[in-house]
Write the C-alpha cells for this entry.
Amino acid sequence: MTRDELLRDPYVAAFPELVPFWEAAARSVLLLPRCTVCGATHWHPRAQCPFCRSDALRWEQASGRGTLHTFTVIRRPHGAPDLLAYVRLEEGPLMLTSIVGEEQPERLRIGDAVQVTFRAVPEGRWAPVFRCQAIK
Ligand SMILES: [Zn+2]
C-alpha cells in the first residue's frame, strides 16, 4: 500500500507517525522504535521515549522473535478460536498481538518461542501476528 492508501485507514490517519511501521509490515518487516539517547526499544510507539523522555527515536528492524508471555483463548461457535496474546519481543518490549496457525491452543505454553508473521486486517494493511515455533 502507498502512504496515501494507508492514510485512508482511520486508524493510520489517527497516528500518521506510524506510517513507516505499516509500510514495513506490508513487506513482512517488523519495526520497533529505538531511542537514540538511552538505546531502549519500546512498544507501543509514542512521540517520546518512555524511559528517558527523549524524542530522538528511530525505526529499527526487529528480529521478529519472541516468547509467549500470556494468552487467552476466545472461542466462537464456529471456526478456530482466536488467540489473543502478549508476546515478549527479543528486543524487550511486550506486544499485544494474536497467535495464528494453532488449532489446539491447549498445547501452547507460557515461554514458548514465537516468530512474527503478518496478517491482512479488514482495512487492508498488514499487522504483525505470531506463530508458535514449537508446534508446526
Ligand atoms: Zn530513551
Notes: The chain has a mean pLDDT of 93.
